[in-house]
Give the backbone structure.
Amino acid sequence: MEGNGAPLHGLLLLLVALFSSAPVCLGSGVSGSVPSGVPELVGHLKPFGFQRPAEYPIDEVIDPYSLTPEQFYTQYVEAVRPVVFRGAAKHFKAYSEWTKPRLMSQYGKLELRIEPRKDGSAKHPVGALGFGRDTMENFVRGLETSDNYVVSELPSPMYGDVELLPCMSCGRLLRKVSEVNLWMSGGGTRSRLHRDAFNAINCQINGTKDWIMIPANQTDNVYFKASSDWELGGLSPVNTDSIDLKKYPRIRDVPWGITTVEAGDCIYVPGGHYHQVRSYGLVNVAVSVLFSRLESPHALGFDPAECRGLEPRFVPLSETPEILWAYPGHGMMTMGCIDDNAMVSMIFSMSDGKPVSKKQFFAQENTPFDQGDGGKAVKKIWKLLDTDQDGLISRSDIGNISRDDWREMSHIMEPDVVFSNSYDYEYAVLDYTMVRTVLSRALQKQGKMSREDFTSVYTEVIRGSDYYANKLFDQLDKAKKGAITWKKVKKGLLEEVLEPFLMSEEEDGGNHFADGDGDDVAGEEEALDGADLMRSVMGRDEGDIEGDESLSDSEREMALEEYQERASHVSDILGLDQDSEADTDSDNEGGEEEEEDGDDEDDPENARLQELYRTHMEKVERESHEQDRLPEATEELEEIMPAQGDAAETSRKAKTEL
């Protein structure tokens, strides 16, 4: 995978240069100011950068050995300033050896986390292992045209191909690596304006990226609102592709800089710095090394004495001290977990850097240590922190805590599973009621479904993955006959198989299981119907698309065409058009009696059975004194009159039963 040219990547820079009154900042940055007399809404509904000139400097380092760890810490980490290292990643094996054949043959079975190619897309990312999970082999095979991109922890078997830069080769810069991430796409991706919790060095292996950088002190001007004082990362609500200055007028006051990072370059992005990234090239690959905010108040900082006398050198990740959140390439990921130094900063902020007493620690409310569980989490964390059991948390206690204990504390503080890190992502994001209703209707309509039929409904209507379609089919086809019928699955089996999808509705506190043997799978109260079902399946309606301000006119037109085409297909598969016709008939003037679903009005045998059905139900209603008798009667009649089937067989069975 050679580095690709990017003929379009400079378009943003060129446009900004043409429409701004000062030069664009490239690398070292160029100062400028908004001239007097500029119209108040200059740059309104244009991309970020048209509102004022670039004036935030971004330094460059040409020789990676020239910046010592001490200089890097004082000039950039402690000063909270970005810097670009030109050509530094060309020292990595990854730069020369990460070809498609090698990635597929040597690392093909490793698992990666994936996201939609366009940040903020409503589509779920589908990989070989379901939503949000793919194999290296499958992703790389279709990398150039994939609708997804990889944003995953780098599997540890690949650590030997990536190195820490010389400026991180000693002291806590070396020991406090928290996480290593991999980014892969076919280019053309863009992020939203956001900030990250960790300090990071992002190294470009293939392709090109433009980085728009905004100082961390611009929180108010980018309209970022954290949900708590402890939230270190997050997104700005501003659409950087079309700045609405009437809604976000302070954007005009934001100083910014822009730099282009080519294949082989690295960029240091301070934690808390706001940035937007756009990628270019047929293949775009980068690795990001996340390390502790050593500069945070009361954190364990950098001690230059630990590096004196040591020559700066490139250090393979495979030779670094234990990385806090390493990922072996299979199983649960830990992207975004809090690191030990962040916890240290929180702890000693309670006492302005002095030892923390038990009373002080337990008095803290609304912090990540307080889980609202009556103090159980706080007690567990205190026990792990007070290693000498003297009733105080001191710096010596911190030095005695193992990496495993820090991980345990992190899990106590953040007990909720991040589903995109797990194999349960598909269960968590697909609505249980929608999935059950779609499968119920499709089964009732078709009567019998092969694996191919079932997979088609699950992937085309529900938009789930092939992997989970086959998994669900195998669970429903207990007899291994290669087909499933509504009669076989309606009595609770469908609900049993779909139980994991209930995690998507746990917050509602509802129990979506049927009582007894589960015969109300398609029940009126539990199922979606008509417009509600269509909206649940489609995820949005035409009004949502019309009102989506993030879409251009051409994108909106394409989205509407795609919506209408898919809606027609879904209606056909689920028989929603028939529902609509039935509703229309029932509203006709003259009040014609509504036909029973699934019957052919021209079939005299079915007409006779309908009359038999009505007669039977009238008798039950007259004789029954309890409302609970109605479901039992309905069950009896289902045996007499199935939704679909051969008329002769239906007649024979009805005579036998009666």
The radius of gyration is 30 Å. The first strand starts at residue 59 and ends at 61. The first helix runs from residue 11 to 19. The mean pLDDT is 79.
